[in-house]
Automatic annotation (TrEMBL):
Name of the protein: Single-stranded DNA-binding protein
One Gene Ontology MF term: single-stranded DNA binding
Alphabetical list of CDD domains matching this protein: SSB_OBF
Chain residue ranges for the region called Disordered: 102-143
UniProt keyword annotations, A-Z: DNA-binding
Species for this entry: Paraburkholderia phenoliruptrix
Keyword set includes DNA-binding: yes
Coiled-coil intervals, chain numbering: none
Keyword DNA-binding: yes
């Protein structure tokens, strides 16, 4: 069994589907950098398609967004062939994700600015009635 362990970036937002049996499966595009930097100053990238199954796929999908840095372990890594848009045949690495953790360094998401809180006015203190305030109480005990 071939395994892959490493630090990778999510290549695109995760897509979650359900099998006919109702199991959730998330497709995760992983970019692993390897080797030495080239003349352009960048390391080569190896793309791997990972499949995350079950409840973890549903729970983690909102956090696995494009650009997120993750540590990941894949099992059953294998080469798959596919048909490219131009009609030629391509190959890719694929595997089943057995462990994935967010490592930080994702793309910051655009958030709306927090609303400015309005100053709260305190109600004016009320004076207690002169008689101790018990005149309006009913003498019947409710229990």
């Amino acid at each position: 069994m071939i395994q892959i362990f490493g630090l990778a970036r999510i290549g695109r937002d995760v897509e979650v589907r359900n099998t006919t049996g109702g199991d959730a499966v998330a497709s995760v595009s992983l970019a692993f950098n390897y080797g030495r930097k080239g003349d352009d100053g960048k390391k080569p990238t190896q793309w791997v398609d990972g499949a995350l199954w079950g409840k973890r796929a549903e729970v983690l999908a909102p956090y696995l967004t494009k650009g997120s840095l993750v540590t990941v372990a894949l099992e059953d890594a294998h080469v798959e062939t596919f048909r490219k848009a131009d009609g030629t045949e391509g190959v890719k690495l694929a595997g089943r994700i057995t462990a994935i953790d967010l490592a930080g360094g994702g793309q910051p998401q655009q958030q709306a600015p927090a609303p400015t809180p309005k100053p709260q006015q305190r109600p004016a203190p009320q004076r207690a009635p002169a008689g101790g305030g018990f005149e309006d109480m009913n003498d019947d005990v409710p229990f």
